[in-house]
Amino acid sequence: MDAVLAPDIYVNASVAFGSPPEHVVRRAFSARRKPKTSTWVMERVRSMLHALPEFKDEAVERQMETIRGLVEIVENREHYIEDWSEALVALAKAAGVGRVLTDHPDLLGSNDAEGIEFVSSERWLVEQATPPPPPVV
Question: CA angle, 19 as apex, 14 and 24 as ends, to 5°?
């Protein structure tokens, strides 16, 4: 996979079946190599799931256990809870990719991300379904 997933993608995939984030996560988890994530992302996912009334504590723990089993944790320096852009840029660099998949509107509108591109789940799915251009003759 050419990108890492932001916490909102994991959370939206957990609650909105059939949505673009859920399709992105399915593709990521079906790839030959495990998608890379960080402790910061996992902590944000846990926190966001706990905030949802439909997710009881035991359901959150089961979901987190499932996600942990499907990803590879790439450690990088610690970030504050609110440091989404900095934490995700650091994760992308540590994972060796140039993109972060997110549907967070503040991140999608950001311009200066140290060369890391923030891409919506919907746009990424369209890119994956679009055939490459024909060869130039």
Answer: 75
Is the residue at 135 inside a domain? no
Tokens of 11: 């959370």
Q: How far apart are CA 80 and CA 40, in angstroms?
A: 9
Residue 49 lies in a domain: yes
CA 90 to CA 88: how far, in whole Å? 5
Angle formed by the axes of helices 39-50 and 57-70, nearest 10°:
150
Each residue's pLDDT expressed in tens, for the chain with a length of 137 residues: 789 999 999 999 998 888 888 889 988 888 888 999 999 999 999 999 999 988 888 899 999 999 999 999 997 778 878 889 999 999 999 999 999 999 999 899 776 688 899 999 999 999 989 988 888 88
Q: Is residue 48 part of a domain?
A: yes
If you ran DSSP here, which 8-state letter would residue 130 be given?
A: S
Find the domain containing 90 and state its range.
4-129
| pTM for the structure as a whole | 0.87
